[in-house]
Amino acid sequence: MAIQQTADGRWKVDVEPVKGRRFRKTFKTKGEAQRFEATCRAQCIGNSDWSPRPKDRRKLSELVQLWFELHGVSLSDGKRRHAILKETAASMGDPVARSVDGATIAAARARWLASCVAGKTVNNRLGYLKAVYNQLLTLAVIDYDCPFSRLRPIKLQERPLSYLTRPQIQELLAALDARATAPHPAIVARICLATGARWGEAQGLTPDRIQGNSLVFANTKSKRVRSVPVAPELVTLIRAHWKRHGPFSNCIGVFRLVLLTTTIRLPKGQASHVLRHTFASHFIQAGGSIVTLKEILGHASLSMTMRYAHLAKDHLEDAVRLGPLAGFDTFSTPAASENKKAKKKKGLDV
């Protein structure tokens, strides 16, 4: 049935120009009904927006591959993310990407946690998947919303930051200096301790990046160049080292091995990064500005640097000075107060 007159004299249009796209509407005159039918047929033939699209049956792994080809290749850690995403898609059973919903995600997260996957790792996996959907939606590769939009990451217990004391610094540098067959780690470690640089940033230093008494780091995580002043003695030491041993090589492995020979014990995952924490911690404890520290470390936001704020000597001391109990002797019990009065009276009688 295309056009049919109803009992009340009106004209009803019921047309399906293409399978899955049906139009129904009622008009007062037959001419209006005919024009509407012709418009529907013409639009469905000439305008793809009027025609129903086939359902997107691509698997999650296919979306991951598209994300990598269209966007991931431009990221510094794109290959690493790609590998994690492929493994994540496989562990979820590689479902049809469009069918992934909150229940699917929650079930996968529960399985990972039950198999002792760390909470941070779970958050990273789901965060990377969310980025895949959002990026492909931006590029119009998919036409449905990201199913991770309302998903909240697991709230993790914050761990205290580990840093080296001065005796530990001396012990570590002495152990590195004793490794004569591998001279690079000792100098790279000194650069990290003097500037708060990441190991890869210090290891990638080249002669042209020494400008006066400042070291310029260009291969940074934030993609921004930053310059950090250092003692002239360190610059002299670096130049002499390069003249004798050549440019730095990839020596993080040697550093980790030497660290194991010392009495220093660090939380998991904090080998070379403890040098960066050590610089920041000693800087704040010595009275350095948190804003200055942000620029030295190259953090994108001040919130990242605020992790070290509690190490400042005057951190939150206003809680005592300005609190409602300031100036009151409210921490003594009645018995202690009476005892204090008795001792005072006895002293006066004597």
Automatic annotation (TrEMBL):
<dbReference type="GO" id="GO:0015074">
    <property type="term" value="P:DNA integration"/>
</dbReference>
<feature type="domain" description="Tyr recombinase">
    <location>
        <begin position="159"/>
        <end position="321"/>
    </location>
</feature>
<dbReference type="GO" id="GO:0006310">
    <property type="term" value="P:DNA recombination"/>
</dbReference>
<dbReference type="InterPro" id="IPR011010">
    <property type="entry name" value="DNA_brk_join_enz"/>
</dbReference>
<protein>
    <submittedName>
        <fullName>Site-specific recombinase XerD</fullName>
    </submittedName>
</protein>
<keyword id="KW-0233">DNA recombination</keyword>
<dbReference type="InterPro" id="IPR002104">
    <property type="entry name" value="Integrase_catalytic"/>
</dbReference>
<keyword id="KW-0229">DNA integration</keyword>
<dbReference type="Pfam" id="PF00589">
    <property type="entry name" value="Phage_integrase"/>
</dbReference>
<dbReference type="GO" id="GO:0003677">
    <property type="term" value="F:DNA binding"/>
</dbReference>
<dbReference type="InterPro" id="IPR057084">
    <property type="entry name" value="Int_N"/>
</dbReference>
<dbReference type="InterPro" id="IPR013762">
    <property type="entry name" value="Integrase-like_cat_sf"/>
</dbReference>
<dbReference type="Pfam" id="PF24624">
    <property type="entry name" value="Int_N"/>
</dbReference>
<dbReference type="InterPro" id="IPR050090">
    <property type="entry name" value="Tyrosine_recombinase_XerCD"/>
</dbReference>
